[in-house]
Every structure is written in structure tokens, then in C-alpha cells.
Amino acid sequence: MKAKLRKELPYLLFILPAFIVYTILTVIPLVQTLGLSFTNWDGYSMSNLSFTGLKNFKLVFADRSMKTALLNTCFYSIVFPLVTTVFAIPLSLVLNSGMKTKNLQRAVFFFPSVPSAIILGYLWAYILSPTGNGLLNKLLGLFGINPVMWLAVPKWAMFSVLLVNLWSVVGWHACIYLAQLQSIPTEYYEAANVDGATAWQKFRYITFPMLASAMTVSVMLLLLNSMKLYDLPFALTSGGPGTSTTLVSQIIIKTGFVEKSYGKATAMSTIFFVFIAIVSVIQLKLMKKREVE
């Protein structure tokens, strides 16, 4: 036992700094959040702190805005990963082609994922402005098309958030699939060519199944990022019009920093954390099952 510990000690020492940082920045705040969710903390002083039991959690479950935000978040978290995957896989096939401009194409499609989401949000808010001054509406006006209320009508507002987020991340996720594509042995395709397989058959029976592990990573990242999304819809629509693009992260921040109800906000965070954990475990098991199949 001592010999085994002596052998593993150098490796443990290497991960110790990362473990300490993770504990300080993640584990301790998580435990504090859980504890504060049972109090009436106002965000400033601990002197008037008192235990309130499950009061904050009851307030959360009775909050209509939280229910609306949760429905919006669930809708977004289902639709966005699906749409992004549908576009990312074909894009990765294009980027994997032998065209002379493939390196330029990779850079062009990857670039939107580099700037901050808040910057992209304000940029696209100008482009999609529902007035005639919006860049996109000006372009449509050249063809005699009336201005579209991109950010002023509920159905168009959510569509706009989805569209902008898709534009910003599809290239990044295409690169995940591209890395997996480049690891597929060429012998599989050569054997398929000998058998007279069509391009669709090669994609269906070779390419797509071999992308399973990349899809697990991509969909997991998309799901988690969709659930905790805040900056892009905030910059584009501030959760409006009405509550049509209000997500859970916006409600939590509004409750804590605007309404100064930190106890309720931490209760929201705790509930949402558990919800995300459950969904993530289910999604991961389903994707892993697909990899095995």
C-alpha cells in the first residue's frame, strides 16, 4: 500500500494546485449558495441573517416568472443543440473537403466564436433593429420588403436569439466534428468504394456512426451552455418583448441584484443546479448508449 502511494504521490502533487483552485472557486461557493438559500440574506450584511427554512423554495415554486423562464429555457435547450448539430455536421464535411480554400473557410466559420457574446449581442441588436434603421431591414427595403419586427414580436425575438447564437457557435462545433472526421481511417471509405457504396451510404454507415463520441461532447456543451445562457439574449432583447426570451439565468440575476432578494435568488440557483445535473446525467447516459450501439 505504501509503495503504491509512493508511486502515485508525484501525480497527486501535480493535480493538487488545480484541486485547490477548483475547491476555492467552485466547491466552497456552491456549498455557501446552498446554505444561503435557507436564509433571508440581503446580500450586504450577515448581522441580520436568519434561518427561514423552505420559505425561499416555496416562493420560487410559486413565482410565475420563474415558471415562464424555465419553459423558455427548456425550449431553447432542446431546439438550439438540435439545430446547431444539424448545421455543424454538414459544415464539418465541407471543411474536411480538399478545397484549396479550406483553411480560409475554417478561419471564417470559427471567427464568430472568438468575440464576447455580449459584444455580438449588441452588434446584432443594431443589425436586427425592428425599426427602418436596422441594417437587415434596410437591406430588405432595397427589395421592397417591409421591415420585420425581429426583436419586437415574441416569435421573431426567440428566433433571432437562436439565429445569432447559431451563427456564433456553429463553426466552433463544426471543428469538433472535423477533428473526429480526420481520425476516421480512410480504409473504411476505400472498402465502401469497392463495394459500390454511394456518398449517402458512406455517410450513413461510416461517417455518422463514427461521429458519435464527438456528438456526445458537442451536444453536452450545447445543452449546458443553452441552460446557463445569459449575456446574448440580455444584449439582444433584455428578455423581451414581455418575457418571451427571458431565461432562468436572467431571472436569478434580476432577483438577486435588482430585487435584492439574495436568499430567493440562491434558492433559484440551487433548484436550477439540481435540474441541470439531472438533465445532464440523463443526456450523457443516452449519448453514451448511442456510442456503444
Jot down its keywords:
single chain; 293 residues; mainly alpha; 73% helix
Helix-strand sequence: HHHHHHHHHHHHH
Shape: globular
Give Rg in angstroms. Answer: 24 Å
| Count of DSSP H/I helices | 13
Please identify which CATH superfamily we are dealing with: MetI-like
Describe what is shown at a glance:
With 293 residues, the protein is an all-alpha fold.
Describe this structure in words.
This protein has 13 helices and no strands. Helix content is 73%, strand content 0%. Helix 4 packs across helix 7 (154-181) and helix 10 (212-227) packs antiparallel against helix 13 (262-292). It has one domain (55-292): MetI-like (MetI-like fold, Orthogonal Bundle), CATH 1.10.3720. The chain has helices spanning 2-36, 55-62, 64-95, 102-110, 117-127, 135-141, 154-181, 186-194, 199-210, 212-227, 231-236, 248-258, 262-292. It has 293 residues and is mainly α. This is ABC transporter permease. Residues 70-283 form the ABC transmembrane type-1 domain. Its main location: membrane. It is found in: Cell membrane.
Topology:
Blueprint: H1 2-36, H2 55-62, H3 64-95, H4 102-110, H5 117-127, H6 135-141, H7 154-181, H8 186-194, H9 199-210, H10 212-227, H11 231-236, H12 248-258, H13 262-292
InterPro entries: ABC_transporter_permease, MetI-like, MetI-like_sf
Subcellular location: Cell membrane
GO cellular component, one term: plasma membrane
